[in-house]
Specification:
The protein folds into 2 domains: 66 residues; 41 residues. Helices cover 72% and strands 0% of the residues. The chain has 6 helices and no strands. Helix 1 packs parallel to helix 4 and helix 5 crosses helix 6. The longest helix is centred in the last third of the chain and has 20 residues. It is elongated and about 50 Å long.
Length: 116
């Protein structure tokens, strides 16, 4: 998941959830006030406008306000992928499964690095 997709999802679910206001505009306004961002910036992130990139300080502010960390969500996705791959292969031997998990974790880590 990209930083922009993560930020959009966190805005909608944690910073300004549906229970906060009935209209999307009111939710965006509430989120912009909580984050101290401009309304237009918040709206662009809300709708995950591809022309927008999330700055590191904005990501930290989102994590601070929402309590959800970007890395934790990524780790959960990697663990789910590993679990699904292990089930598909059907190995019952824990040593093989552990080796497979380690290999997949390494592969996904390399693919996600900025140098890849």
């Amino acid at each position: 998941m990209s930083e922009l997709a993560f930020a959009s999802e966190i805005l909608k679910s944690h910073v300004a959830p549906p229970s906060l206001a009935s209209s999307v505009g009111a939710r965006i306004l509430a989120a912009s006030r909580k984050l101290k961002w401009s309304f237009n910036r918040t709206r662009d992130v809300w709708y995950a406008d591809q022309r927008v990139s999330i700055k590191p300080k904005e990501l930290r502010k989102l994590e601070e306000v929402s309590g959800v960390e970007f890395g934790q969500q990524e780790l959960g996705e990697v663990d789910r992928l590993i679990s699904n791959a292990t089930k598909l292969l059907g190995h019952k031997d824990p040593h093989i499964s552990g080796s497979l998990a380690t290999a997949l974790r390494s592969l996904l880590g390399v693919m996600d690095s900025p140098r890849a």
